[in-house]
Design brief:
Mean pLDDT: 82
InterPro entries: Tektin-like (IPR048256), Tektins (IPR000435)
Family: Belongs to the tektin family.
Main location: cytoplasm
Shape: rod-shaped
Largest sheet: 2 strands, antiparallel
Coiled coil: 144-182
Low-confidence stretches: 1-10, 23-39, 75-80
Region (Disordered): 1-64
Order of helices and strands: HEEHHHHHH
Number of strands: 2
Structural class: mainly alpha
Length: 488
Amino acid sequence: MKETPTTMPDSRELQQARERLGVTKVGSGDGDEPEILSRECYLPKPEDELPRERDNEMGPLGPWATGRVDWGPLKGLTGTRPVVDKYSVARFSEGEWRSHNKQVLDSVVGFQHQANLLEYNSKEGIEQTRAATDRNQADSTRRLKQREQELHRWKCELERAISASAEEIAMMQEQRRRLKQSMAVLQLPESIAGECLDRRTGRLDPELVRDEVEEELIKEMALTAEIREQFTRTLMDVEHQLLEDKTAKNRLEYDWSDKKQANEIECVNVALNNSSNTLLFRPGAVGFPDNQSTQDHWETFTRETLEESEITRQRSVALRGTLDAILSDAAKNLRAQADRLDMALAKRISCTEEIRTRLENELRGMLKRLADIESTICNLKDMIRRMDISMKKAQTRLDNRQLHRPRVENCRDVAQYGLVDEVKSIMDSVSALSSQLQQAEEIQSNLMMSRSNIEREIMVKRKTLEIDRDRSKKIRSFYPSATALSGY
């Protein structure tokens, strides 16, 4: 507030006071001649300041005297104390009376001048106070509006951050659902590979080989175990990141709630005016609480909250990208391994079917050979039996000729030698046929053994085909797709 003036800017009020006291200005008014004041009879006169001669002066003796001489001639000369007698109580002279009147009028003029100055200064002070108060209120309102706008801006920033954080949490929860779904779907490849291995252990001895299918099944089991371990670690990371995201979102929401409450309070303060019904004296409102923060700390706290939330969100985005890559790579690797195993299994099945077909064809040929050998054996035995008749015939002839011919007639003629040669020839033929029969029987025995082996091998191959084709290949047809393995 400006200082109020102690003097008036003009002398109009002083001139009005002089006119009320009867003092008038006499002169040309051009400023060269001095002012000549005409005074009334009740105001001091120039001769009152000089001693004057007193005519018919009342002395200390006379009918008016009281007999008390308390006033000397000196006092009478100065005119300060007139004679006091029994007829009067007058104690002052006319000069003193006029001087007293002047003092009273001057004091009135002075007080009125002071009152006028006070009135003027009060008006100026009131106007200045009103202007200063309005200016201060306008400045405070402007600052409150700026603060309200700043709070609104930060509140909008927090709202955007909360929205982004909520969206990130929803996306992370979706990724966690995908990961859990992938872990659940991963049980199917594990069970399929485990059952295939368990079924293949039921193969018969000649087929218990460590073939390509066996190696691919072991690789698939190791791959699924490695992927499950990676999924478990990633799930723990996702759970931890979700906790951090929710914590950051809670901090943002708490800060947003505080900003919203402060913004509402600032809006109420901005809307207040001098005619509001809620205006009250609050003596303790001017104090600074101990827990109040500075504006720099307030802004730094909000910025740090937003920055930490953004850093957490970026980590979550990076983890989501990593998780998506992990799921895609896992699905790709599992499908590639499954395709390799299916190709190996198909190749193994084809090879087993080929050898089974070959064995069946060999079995059919062997059965035909066995039939031919049995026919040959029957023919040989029949031929040997028929040779007995020829042998009997030749021996009977020889016996008849050697035992029943008389003396000289029993000679070694050509017929005798022919019969002997016939018997030898029959014996040689029987021996040869017997040898062939023995060989045929041995061959038949070998063929029977080979037939048994072939039939057993065919049974083994059929058992292997039942495991690989009818069971393993069938259950592997239920192998999940890459989309299902990715968690969709």
